[in-house]
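Subject: mismatched residue count in predicted assembly?

I count 620 residues in my input, but I want to confirm that the predicted structure covers every chain. Input:
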Amino acid sequence: MKDKLNARNLVSALLVAGLLLLPLYSQASGNVFVLTLFTRIVILALAAASLNLIMGYGGMMSFGHAAYLGIGGYAVGILAQEGFGSGFLQFPVALAASAIYALVIGALSLRTRGVYFIMITLAFAQMAYYVASGLARYGGDDGLTVYKRSDFGGLINLSNRTQFYYLCLACLLGVVFLIWRIVNSRFGMVVQGLRSNEQRMQAIGFPAKRYKLMCFVISGTLCGLAGALLANNTDFVSPAVMYWTRSGDLMVMVILGGMGVLFGPVVGAVAYLLLEELLSQVTEYWALIMGPLLLLVVLFARGGIMGLLGRLNRG
Amino acid sequence: MLLVVEQFLNGLQFGLLLFLLAAGLTLVFGIMDLVNLAHGSLYMMGAYFAATFVAWTSNFLLGAMLALGATLLLGIVLEFTTLRHLYGRDHLDHVLATFGLILFFNEAVRLIWGPAGLALPLPAWLTVPVAILPGIYYPAYRLAIIVVALAVALLLYLGVMRTRVGMLIRAGASNREMIGALGINIKLLYTLVFGLGAALAGLAGLMQAPILTVQIGMGENILILAFVIIVIGGIGSIRGAFLAAIFVGIIDTMGRAFLPNLLRQMLSSAAASTAAPALSSMLIYLVMAIVLVVRPEGLFPANRR
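Triage response: the counts match. Full output below for your records.
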């Protein structure tokens, strides 16, 4: 599939350009709020993009992706609490912890498929939530305040709003690029083949489970990165970041944007979180509108926003 | 000894409540192939209806009956207006759509009943302790839950295994197209099954309400336990749901009650008090993981072909 000037690519390009130029707008207009809002959006878009790798390309419907947000966040928070402030330590630990968790959970969950898989990943994430609530030393239910953001020496200052925003954006674009490379590699082709027809792929001789597990671990690790960034963004980490509704939010972002489309989750995250922000300014009861809206998207807008754009292009 | 018996009964009671919830979930999944996350919302609505109707009628039993009817009606309306359009769609679509319904229900409850929880007081005749064995007393209300839930389980079993409608339900579970081709009004059957599931969830909610407070989101944690039960028991199997529910209820309750003491004997008290809460809430998930390793299809899978 050669790159073409179609509606999808146009929207993706405009979105990236907009995200790159946002701090300039924020500085010019003096609107600091928009920058903090979009920092959060970019981080959650990163998490959604990682979920898209297993959901959209691998066909693994994980309903427990928020667990990695918590694990990445707690890695940063706990290390900071214990006096290890260096980001060069915190971030690798966050990624490694997420990878190990994904390896264990994936090895168990991938024994099942379909609805079982959805329920199992959900249940394990909820287990992680309860474990975090039980960490009395690290705040338990109340969560853990991160008094000092990750320290990257003189390289980058995370307490500077603009620098932190660009770090998050760079991570997002880097992850999207990485996913693009993965999807188009031999490994990615095998994973997509497994999504279409696992039996056939196995008959050809591919070890299905190993490929899927690898994909699951990569996705979890990338989401752990989002977790580490999120803890730095809010200066706080609590069990609530792994609550199952957060996993649902991530799923909604992926579907709303367009599953299995490279920039789908980014578009979805921006659309979902902006809508949430707008609705909550109109009424306190924003979920009363958001809920039925999701229902309508499921019923009438298959393939999400990117799907609609794709149809637009075909005429 | 006294404590062990009491905790065992608490576990049994909790397990039976979980069964009521899991039975509806597994029926709806087994027959309509629908993953309904909003099942927990029906549980919550049952509790809120009960709290409201009992306050109106100032009669516990009458209020409970009205609440049960209201949940049944709500389930039928829900099936008729939205869920019906989801049959035959991808499971992911079900998850998303019903996730949207949860958002809607939680917010609607906040709008109607306010963010603070409600209390559902028990009538005096249900608060007295009853002697179950010489010298061992147990709260009458919890005993009543056990009796009611067991009766419902028995009725459900007889209804599904011994009546004509039950036969159709079983036939629908094993081959949906064929039963439609045989001239059965499959749409009506689906609505009926969904309403039944909703009523079971509502019954669980209203019976649990006097023990816990009635609050927003109360259905979500227990829904995940119901998922664990379905995974352990095997999807679509009522017998599996029953056994797994009692198993999970007892393990969870006994674990929370006795694990801290057990750990304190093995570890230092500081380490034990840190590890115990986390470990006891992990217990059933560990059980689930073990079941998955040994029997990925669950212990009692329904459709053995």
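Residues 66 and 242 of chain A are 5 Å apart (CA to CA). Marking this ticket as 'not a bug'.
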